[in-house]
Amino acid sequence: MSDEESAGSGVIRRDRFSGGPARGFLSSLAADERIFAADLAVDRAHVVMLAEQDIVDDDVAGEILTALDDVEDAGHEALPDGEDVHEAIESAVIERVGPDGGKMHTARSRNDEVATCIRYQLRADVLEVVEDTLALREALVETAAEHTETVMPGYTHLQPAQPTTVAHYLLSYEAAVARDTARLLDAYDRINQSPLGAAAFAGTPFDVDRERTAELLGFDSVLSNSMDASSARDFLAETLSALATHATTLSGLAEDVIIFANKGYVDLSDDYSSTSSIMPQKKNPDTLELVRGSAGDVVGDLTGLLTTLKGLPRAYNRDLQRAHGHAFDAVDVVANATDVAAGAVATATWNDETLADEAADGFSTATGVADLLAMAGLPFRTAHEVVAEAAAEAEGENPSVATLDAVAEEVLGASLWEYVTRDAVEAALDPAQSVASRDSQGGPAPSAVATDLDAAEQDLATDTEALADRQDALVAAAETLADEVSTYE
Ligand code: ARG
Questions:
Q1: DSSP assignment, residue 221?
Q2: Which alpha helices (DSSP H) does 75-109 contain, by range?
Q3: Is residue 21 scored above 90 in pLDDT?
Q4: How far apart are CA 271 and CA 469, in angstroms?
Q5: Which residue in 2, 6, 157, 440 is the catalytic one?
Q6: Which of 67, 89, 69, 72 has the alpha carbon at shortest distance from 80?
Q7: pLDDT tens readout for residues 320-367
Q8: How much is the average pLDDT of 139-165?
Q9: Phi/psi class of residue 206: alpha, beta or left (left: φ > 0; alpha: ψ in -120 to 50)?
Q10: DSSP sequence for 133-165
Q11: How remote is the CA of residue 28 from the centroid of ligand 1, in Å?
Q12: Which carries the bigger pLDDT value, residue 366 or residue 171?
């Protein structure tokens, strides 16, 4: 037998299976463009490891690695037909190398291969979203720092509740986005584990070095159990949950700013607004409406993913081909929405005067007056009753000091001035002084906000480093892999 014959045709046989009318239905080749670069990296790391383990000769490894460079240069669109990118790249390698190209797929399966590719690509995508969350936090912190004294109405049930400041409001979202960052970084650490070498699900008799391929690909660790490694997709669920949570945070921020723009509290920059094709005067907050709407896509993706994964038996099932698309869609939607939210916040103008004028509307200082009476020794419930009575008397207006005093006489049978001074009541009715008085930890008083601003800046610096560490590790691994590949070519 000649070498050629013993090696076979090297062509992936499709004559028996999946060449029929369902071929297009089975194929993920178009969608797999997203993992084209990942698959090339995974192929390279695998081939280097096969050579190091003497499973494949160095010269064959060199030919395969050279062919992979050529396949990369030609691009995804130049790939031959295939059931997926893994099969198509293998065919393209065999076209260039001949039957020995088929040695690339020794000691692995498309099942561990695709799981590795998804993780390889998704981790980079997640780091981009993390970066976007940091930019949003920076915009929130910087704008907050300019507005620690900018008093504004605060709401519950969308009704005026208590005066607060723009800084306190913005930092409330900064805190939520910081937790979103943390959830994404947590998810990243579980994405970044290597399934490669698990083969179909049941391991391989070849003496593979799974730690080595993990290292060459920049994974932090190996997923040991081969059945788990090739079939687990909980990392997608975790990532999508973190993305959906963040998208939900963004939708709340967007909704608030849309409402604030409606009330004239904030002006969006023209770059983040749209006009109407018919109503020339319109300036609409379309970008933020799309941010708000993005949450729908992401929640839909999470639901789609979990529904696909629910009840799947071990080990690999082809349903899984439909799982990761949800994560890639969500990560793109969230990256864009976060980026736009950051830009909108950074360029918006807060209208200090309008905000100050309306800060006390709806008797929003009522709680402060009740607190004042309670601090003077009245039970808070009694103080609440006095102020509630005064609010009722004032019929939608803010009660005067005289009204408060008259109500106190009625309810307490004593003058208000037996408890508090007139100056203190006037201060409590003033929104800026009301805010300044609430200096408990995390409160809106400028002094309390200053402490929270410092902490937010420090957390931002810590997370920026955490991101850089992960990015640097990936760059270093890519360089190591390229160096190793070059020794065979
Ligand atoms: N394209 C498939 C996926 O995305 C991987 C191929 C595994 N196919 C198989 N028949 N075992 O999940």
A1: E
A2: 85-97
A3: no
A4: 34
A5: 157
A6: 89
A7: 999 999 999 999 999 999 999 999 999 999 999 999 999 988 889 999
A8: 96
A9: beta
A10: HHHHHHHHHHHHHHTTT-EEEEEETTEEEEEEE
A11: 8
A12: 171
Is ligand 1 within 6 A of the CB of residue 29?
no
Per-residue tokens: 31: 């969608």
The interaxial angle of helices 36-52 and 85-97, nearest 10 deg, is 60
What gap in Å lies between CA 474 and CA 370, rounded to an integer?
A: 57
Q: Which of 9, 224, 269, 276 is catalytic?
A: 276
- Would you call 276 a catalytic residue per the annotation? yes
- Nearest CA to 120 out of 204, 182, 213 is that of 213
Dist. CA 394–CA 277, nearest whole Å: 46
CA of 296 to the centre of ligand 1 (A): 29
Ligand 1 atom closest to the Cα of residue 118 is: 4
Give the phi and the psi of residue 162 in degrees, each rounded to 5: -145, 145
Which segments of 192-323 does DSSP mark as H helices, in order?
210-216, 226-231, 234-262, 286-309
In this structure, the dihedral spanned by the alpha carbons of residues 370, 450, 128 and 213, taken in order and rounded to 10 degrees, is: -110
Mutate to test the pocket of ligand 1, among 318, 319, 322, 328 (most ligand atoms within 8 A of CB): 318
- Are residues 349 and 385 in contact, defined by beta-carbon separation less than 8 angstroms? no
For the chain, which domains are there?
A: 22-106 (1.10.275.10), 112-147+154-354 (1.20.200.10), 360-435 (1.10.40)
Burial profile 293-312: b = 16 or more Cβ within 10 angstroms, e = fewer? ebbebbbebbebbbebbeee
Which pair of tokens denotes residue 290?
């799309």
Compute the distance between CA of residue 200 and CA of residue 112 in angstroms, rounded to an integer. 6
Distance in angstroms (rounded) separating the CA atoms of residues 14 and 382: 84
SS3 194: strand
Tell which wins on pLDDT, 19 or 391: 391
Q: What 3-state class would DSSP assign to 284? A: strand
Which among 18, 29, 84, 326 is the best mutation to test ligand 1's pocket, defined by most ligand atoms within 8 Å of the CB? 84
User: CB of 456 within 8 A of CB of 148?
Assistant: no
Atom 2 in ligand 1: residue holding the nearest Cα: 321
